[in-house]
Specification:
With 463 residues, this protein is mainly beta. 9% of the residues lie in helices and 47% in strands. It is built from three helices and 22 strands. It has an 18-stranded antiparallel beta barrel. A two-stranded antiparallel sheet has the order 12-13. It has a two-stranded antiparallel sheet with strand order 16-17. Helix 2 runs antiparallel to helix 3 (365-377). The radius of gyration is 23 Å and the shape is globular.
């Protein structure tokens, strides 16, 4: 408990500071009221863009938040003995964005993040990430970008199946409020033809991956076409690293000032996703070693589709509503999920029996299997069908903002609920709270999160 005091004290001291002025912001969704929260920082009315008069623009957000967790048992973590989870955690996080305009209309953009996490049951963790750092050079009708960049080629809100080279969005936090998503190292060339854009991107991890046999080499081609009210995207990626090719299509249609319809789809022959071997027949009454995960569906000849369709509608009084249906062929079928949970339950019973000796890092083989199951469970596309709904409202001249969302697993009807509220108490000082709840059966997805719910309270200062 004493380890939490420095961060909590920092929060109390920061709240005594005067207002600060932000120098950069984000453009709000034209169909969604802007939200002055960590999810959507407020832009200063007098600020200019990167190509404005000032050659250097920046924004720094300092967040301090405390999280309380209501822990509960799960199939993967019986009695909380396999994996330590904090019931009280304090996080101090710094997010910084910089943009510089150079001679001849060249520009540089960078985003960095640093965090300090202090919990009551886990070790103190520190992190630093270079989320973006790239140079942009105009070349007539062309534009060249080189460096680490977060691509934004899709229009889905909670899901982005057509984001072939984009970081995967987290449906329970689609706006990435803590700025956790990182870009890829790439070279991008855009060709502007009137209202249309044709792009080519080469991306690789050769600078960060020392294992030459596992390096990634991707080439992506994309055409963004405007047809009256329709905005169409066609993208193709050739993954030379594993000889897999993927195609994607997105569309966006705006009707009036209040309604937007969007959708996107991607397809791949076979799947490069990792699957637990426990989904195979006759693998439920046994334990696995280091080969627990494998690309079991890599050579399947069928087409694996991932798609989302959604609507974005703003009511006359300003409430913004978003709904999306997401389907992925890479998710487990009902039979495969039952096999996966059955082997997890076998590992759980074997672990609780105490009959197995340690085999790795002081852990028994059943315990290792539970950790392996849990690591895969923490990923995405576990099941095939999901429904996302969200409602957001701004009041008091957008100083008070709130939203509620629900993520429903349609294969087992387990649900994750999230509610947020924020208040701009000073010009650049925002306080906020975020609550999460989970419900589902003993073998469902959201019923095995290991939490009944959580509550986060925090303060954000923008410089």
């Amino acid at each position: 408990m004493r380890r939490l005091f420095p961060c909590i004290l920092t929060s109390m001291l920061l709240m005594t500071l005067g207002p600060v002025e932000a120098l950069a912001g984000q453009e709000p969704n034209p169909l969604e009221p802007p939200t002055p929260t960590p999810d959507a920082p407020v832009a200063d009315a007098g600020e200019t863009s990167v190509l404005g008069e000032d050659w250097l623009r920046h924004r720094v957000d300092l967040l301090n938040e405390v999280m309380l967790v209501g822990k509960t048992d799960s199939m993967f973590n019986p009695g909380g003995k396999v994996w330590a989870q904090d019931s009280l955690r304090n996080t101090l996080r710094l997010n910084a964005e910089f943009a510089a305009r150079l001679p001849k209309d060249f520009s540089v953009k960078a985003q960095v993040s640093s965090a300090l996490n202090v919990g009551n049951e886990t070790e103190t963790a520190r992190s630093f990430a270079l989320r973006e750092l790239y140079l942009t050079a105009p070349l007539g009708d062309f534009e060249l970008s080189i460096g680490r960049k977060v691509l934004k080629w899709t229009n889905g809100y909670a899901f982005n199946p057509a984001g072939l080279l984009e970081p995967r969005r987290v449906p329970s936090d689609p706006q990435d409020r803590l700025r956790l998503l990182e870009g890829l190292d790439m070279a991008q060339l855009d060709y502007f033809v009137g209202d249309h854009v044709i792009s080519a991107v080469f991306s690789s991890d050769m600078l960060t991956n020392s294992d030459k046999t596992r390096r990634r080499y991707d080439l992506a081609l994309r055409a963004n076409v405007l047809v009256t009210e329709w905005n169409l995207d066609l993208a193709v990626v050739a993954m030379a690293s594993n000889i897999k090719h993927t195609g994607a299509l997105t569309f966006n249609y705006v009707l009036g000032d209040a309604l937007e319809i969007h959708g996107e789809v991607s397809g791949m022959q076979g799947s490069v996703a990792q699957y637990p071997r426990s989904i195979l027949p006759d693998k439920q009454e046994g334990l696995f070693g280091s080969t627990y995960l494998n690309q079991l569906k890599l050579d399947e000849p069928r087409l694996f589709l991932r798609y989302v369709v959604g609507v974005n509608y703003t009511l006359p009084w300003g409430t913004n509503l978003i709904g999306e249906f997401y389907h992925t062929d890479q998710g487990l079928s009902v039979l495969e999920w039952d096999r996966y949970m059955s082997q997890t339950d076998y590992s759980r019973r074997a672990y609780l029996s105490g009959d197995y000796l340690p085999v790795f890092d002081g852990r028994s083989l059943p315990e290792v299997n539970l950790l392996q199951s849990l690591s895969w469970f923490a990923g995405q596309d576990l099941r095939k069908n999901y429904l996302f709904v969200r409602a957001a409202q701004s009041l008091m001249a957008e100083r008070l903002n709130g939203q509620v969302l629900a993520l429903i697993g349609l294969d087992d009807f387990s649900v994750a609920y999230v509610g947020e509220v924020s208040y701009l108490i000073r010009r650049r000082t925002t306080v906020y709270a975020r609550a999460s709840m989970f419900s589902g059966s003993r073998t469902s997805q959201y019923g095995n999160v290991g939490q009944r719910g959580s509550l986060i309270t925090g303060v954000m200062f923008s410089f």
